[in-house]
Amino acid sequence: MRRTVSTALMLGLAACASTTESNPGRTATEQLLLARAADLAVEGLRLPIPEQARVFVDGRYLTGEGALYATSTVRAALSQQGYRLANDRDEADAIFELRAGALSIEQMRRVVGLPPLAVPINENLNVVSIPELSLYSRRDRVGVAEFSGFVHDARTGAPLGAVTPMIGEYRIRSHKVLMMVTWGQQSARPGERDPGDSWREF
Questions:
Q1: Nearest one of 3, 41, 54 to 167, comparing CA atoms
Q2: Whole-prediction pTM value?
Q3: Among 16, 24, 119, 177, which residue has the fewest nearby CB atoms (within 10 Å)?
């Protein structure tokens, strides 16, 4: 009986539970960097047409990751400036054809020391990976958004004017000393409009 109880206790202690998590293609930080850059790009957006005009935002040429969010951001900016939004071309006074020069993430790393290296070791192109050997390194992750477009009459197609590029950047920065001590902005935080000073983030 004693052995049976001991065995049951050991099995109970050894039991464990696990959960399965999904692995989406983009991290929350990547999504937030793009979203904040798009928000900054359209601040103060104005069109070369009278306020109160009904505008249809044509976003079919704005494609890629974050395109739907960017199009909605443009619509929100126009609404805040007093333009009326049309959900259909036939209801609009003007068409704003939107396009993106950039809507992506830039990453840059600066290293005082040796960056990670892949060193070939034979003629068969086999390589050995050498990790980073640095006194100090800094990593920047930047969401970059650039939009532009032009406006034309919804009925005649006559040009009404162009919109110069709208540019937004949202940057987070992290630091590492002796390959172990890290601080700074390791990720973008939901709802945060200003990432602050990376030197004071721990």
A1: 41
A2: 0.79
A3: 16
